[in-house]
Amino acid sequence: MAIYLDHNATSPIRSEVAEAVREAWFTYHGNPASQHASGRAARARLASAREKILALLDADTSHNGDRIIFTSGGTEANNLAILGMAMARTGGAPGRIIVSAIEHPSVLRAAEHLLDLGWRLDTLDVSRDGLINLDSLRAWIGPDVALVSVTLANHETGVIQPVAEVAAICHFHGVPVHTDAVQAIGKIPVSFRLLGVDAMTVTAHKCGGPLGIGALIVRRDQPLLPILFGGEQQDGLRPGTESVALAVGMEVTFELALHELDDTMPRMRSLQAQFEDYLKREIADIVVHGQGAPRLPQTTSLAVRGIDNQLLLAALDAEGIECSIGSACSSGSAEPSATLLAMGVPRDLVRSSLRFSFGPRTTQEELITAASTLADLVRRLRGKRQTPR
After folding, report:
1. Which residue of 20, 304, 322, 370 has the lowest C-beta tally within 10 Å?
2. pLDDT per residue over 240-256, tens digit each?
3. CA angle, 133 as apex, 131 and 138 as ends, to 5°?
């Protein structure tokens, strides 16, 4: 049986979540927009899920509190945030936006779309450990900036960004802030209130929930324009019939993950340290990206000098070890990792890099097997490379 170490791409759905989704599919079969009894029941359950998710993420659940807009996933939620917040700020006219160089492609491509429309795009640089440069933000921020977007935890390296500090700097100048928290939920504590941001992207499938649903949490007073059209659902900000079952799945996912966090977080941190220490002992010249910065407790991005990552990925897969080269959304691209290049990692090391990301139920035995398999493959591949023709 394969050892799955690609939880940052997607995490297997938990049985409790799958059962909750199944039950909701059958129980709440009405359209939440319908006026009959089945529609009212679906609408009430959807409202309950909204309130519970907001509460779990420490958002304001009062009558005029924060909003949650359900989407098809994190990518759509990021697009809604970048395009909808920026254009609401300027009334649709070209303006200026700041994002970090290590954002997920769904943030970077949305920002580049604004660039195509005549906007100015400034990209924050990062340190060798993958932390954004707050001095650059302080130098660039001003009232002409429509939006700043900085991820909470990087999808490749797991490096955690100082988002609360970003929000404080931006709000001093009256500039709204968005954060993509997709990779952080269920792995570290996340409080919408304490982060101080104006909008936050979340999704369920990175921590044991269903695919096909994401959400944008938005402060009530934050202006937002829709990017899709065709209905008045969700205050007209995201048309289309909401899936009650998937919303219930997100609620149950977050409830389980956050309830267990005090136990799972230190356990994953310990496993991460054991995994990396073993590899450092067994593989010469291994490089762990971002190891000098705060990181998610279950993400390891590393480079094995002199060995092509595509070759190593295929060899690991043949041995039943499933990991990745980087973001699943960019896995089909021949381009090297934008995140690692932004960190100043040399191109030869970028093309030798892999990402291992595990979950709360990954065992110590699985990680030891994965590490020993990787070490054996590296010795074999390096031996072949050094064998004279």
Report:
1. 322
2. 999 999 999 999 999 99
3. 145
Nearest-10 Cα torsion for 337, 340, 343, 345: -110
CA nearest neighbour of 176 among 190, 162, 166, 161: 166
Structure tokens at 180: 């993509």
- 329 a catalytic residue: yes
Report field, pTM of the whole predicted structure over 0.85: yes
CB 128 within 8 A of CB 291: no
Alpha-carbon distances of 379 from 7, 273, 320, rounded to whole Å: 27, 22, 18
CA dist 307 and 302 (Å) reads: 12
Q: Using DSSP, how many helices (H) and how many strands (E) does the chain show?
A: 14, 12
Paired residues of 295 in beta bridges: 159
| pLDDT tens track for 264-300 | 999 999 999 999 999 999 998 999 999 999 999 999 9
Of the candidates 170, 207, 323, 329, the residue annotated as catalytic is: 329
358-372 pLDDT, tens digit each:
999 999 999 999 999
Q: Which domains, ranges and CATH numbers included, belong to the chain? A: 3-9+262-386 (3.90.1150.10), 15-259 (3.40.640.10)
Distance, CA of 373 to CA of 383 (rounded, Å): 15
